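Table S7 (text form). Paired inputs.
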Amino acid sequence: MDAQPLLFDLPLAPKMPLPEGFRYQDNLITAEEERDLVARFQDLPFKPYEHLGYFGNRRIAGFGWRQDDDGKMIETGEPIPDVLAPLLDKVAAFTGLARDAFRHALVTEYSPGAGIGWHRDRPPAVAIAGVSLLSPCNFRLRRKVGETWRRASIIAAPRSAYLMSGPARSDWQHSIPQVEAMRYSVTFRTVAR
């Protein structure tokens, strides 16, 4: 008799619950809405992502706020473009937050192999809502507790949305490992007035 347990006989590792203040919804938009939106992204003013001299392997188009040379967020007064208005309406309905509370929008293009490292969005961001487009990603979260990290993750499916507010925004870091296929995300941030 073989003393080694079979893989499927082993107990499953406990799944870490998502942090307080994190919400997720599949199918915020339809596949047709996704195709139309991504096609319209081709007209956006994308530029390589750069932060304090570091260039990430992705392109961005930001509206309403931008980072200055020291990495601080400053308001530009530039409105969120009309192409994002229908999506913003759906995000506001999903989050329960007022549409005009979202004063920053960021469209990020992730080519295969691109990801985003561990970080926590800085103030003035209060709540962050994102929509994942074209391909799934592993949306990871972590928080340091003593000498160890508490971790949680979710597969963000195409056309899904998430909200990070409260402790999920202020106490947890998030990251996305390298994606396997072209992916876009649209991130909306509320900003304290």
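Next pair, protein 2 of 2.
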Amino acid sequence: MDNTLALATLAMLGSALAHAVMTLLTKKATDKLVFRGLTQGFLAVLILPWLLFQPIPPWEVWRFLLTGAVVIWAFNMLLVAAFNEGEMNLAYPVMRGAAPALAALAAFVFLGETVSLGQLAGLGVATAALIGFAWPERDGKPKLKLILLALAAASMTASYTVIDAAGVRVSGQLFIYLGWFFVLSGVTILPTAIFRRGTSFLSIARQETRPALMCMGFNLATYGLALYAYANAPVAPMAALRELSIVLGALLAALVLKEPFGGRRILLAICLAAGLVLLQVM
């Protein structure tokens, strides 16, 4: 393995870990809606000055950006609801794992992309693992509401993935498109948090500001490291490596949040990640 490939591999592993930590910080937040609003708002404030000196995208691109902004707002609300409902090591693998599978199906239907037999096998393994997560626990409780919220959030991720893939193709300017994506994410979820919390927003925000700033750093890290890896190594294996965030996130939830994470969930998380690897590399 040459130095460039080795650095790209390390960068993608760092991206997976950063995504898992970012999600852990969201789960730990006392008020997850305010936390998400502040995190995305800080990102918007950081990126907007740079964007103002870049070419303004044409309306053909804004159609995708505005549609994606509605979808990412829905994702944030569903993420908050899922994490308020139950354990991260159940919600996160389903949210993270179902999204690529759904995105692959959506790309096949709406963008005309082909799906190989290997990818179908990966899709089957990932789907089976997701069904396993939804299966009732030993106490007989299926945690249906949590699973449905996580799947709904995953469907939003799959939707904005397909929307943004189409938008970037029309734009031809990846970083400008990604910058406006972050800004629009902030200007949708932060006002929602302010409206929902009313007069208590400022007092809650003071408690959540420091962890939100930390989360912003991990948010930038997970995207920045992933872009570096994609620019310096084959995309498919790098995308597959990023799916390790599923296992890392579940393990962090068990170690830091002391959530239950028995052998069944460990096996399901590994199978889910393996299915997504097949989906990416075959």
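The longest helix spans residues 201-232.
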